[in-house]
Amino acid sequence: MRCELCGEPADKLYEVEIEGARMRVCERCARNGKILREISEEKPMKTSEEELFSEKMIRSDYLQIISNAVKRMNLSADDISKAIGVEKQEIKQVLSGKIPPTDELAHKLEKFLNVKLFD
Ligand SMILES: [Zn+2]
Questions:
Q1: Ligand 1 centroid – CA 30 distance (Å)
Q2: CA distance 49 to 52
Q3: How far is the CA of 11 from the centre of ligand 1 (A)?
Q4: Centroid of ligand 1 to alpha carbon of 15 (angstroms)
Q5: How far is the CA of 118 from the centre of ligand 1 (A)?
Q6: What is the pTM of this model?
Q7: Which domains occur in the chain, in start order?
Q8: Residue 35, CA distances (Å) to 15, 19, 30, 105 in order
Q9: What is the DSSP letter of 33?
């Protein structure tokens, strides 16, 4: 992270208000403004997770795994749709094997059905 005012790298930044403008600045520069909050190093979690996902391939027997879990838990497409917040139509198409799940949906299903869809 870098201070938006002096450009120096800093472990910790402060969100401050300086002359009416909100900026993320280092401790030194923060003294020139009104400190709103402290910002600690933000890990780019989302990006690394997305990268991780894209490297994985969904298992070829994903449909079998999903169907088994759905039967075992006695779920309908409607139940799944409501539980994971995905359109029922999409769930139905995936369950019937018409379309493969998107990575996002596959990961939601993994969590909800407690199965592994990626190697
Ligand atoms: Zn600074």
A1: 7
A2: 5
A3: 11
A4: 11
A5: 45
A6: 0.54
A7: 1-42 (no CATH), 46-113 (1.10.260)
A8: 6, 12, 7, 41
A9: S
- The C-alpha atoms of residue 58 and residue 115 are separated, in whole angstroms, by 12
Task: Answer whether 101's CB lies under 8 Å from 109's CB.
Answer: yes
Tell how far the Cα of 25 is from the centroid of ligand 1, in angstroms.
5
For residue 38, the CA-to-ligand 1 centroid distance in Å is: 14
pLDDT in tens, 77-118: 999 999 999 999 999 999 999 999 999 999 999 999 999 999
45-83 pLDDT, tens per residue?
A: 555 555 555 567 889 999 999 999 999 999 999 999 999
Strands 21-25, 12-18: parallel, antiparallel or unpaired by DSSP? antiparallel
Pairwise CA distance, residues 109 & 80, whole Å: 8
Separation CA 94–CA 105 (nearest Å) = 10
Task: Please state, as a whole number, how many other Cβ atoms lie within 10 Å of the Cβ of residue 57.
Answer: 11
Nearest to 83 by CA among 118, 111, 53, 115: 111
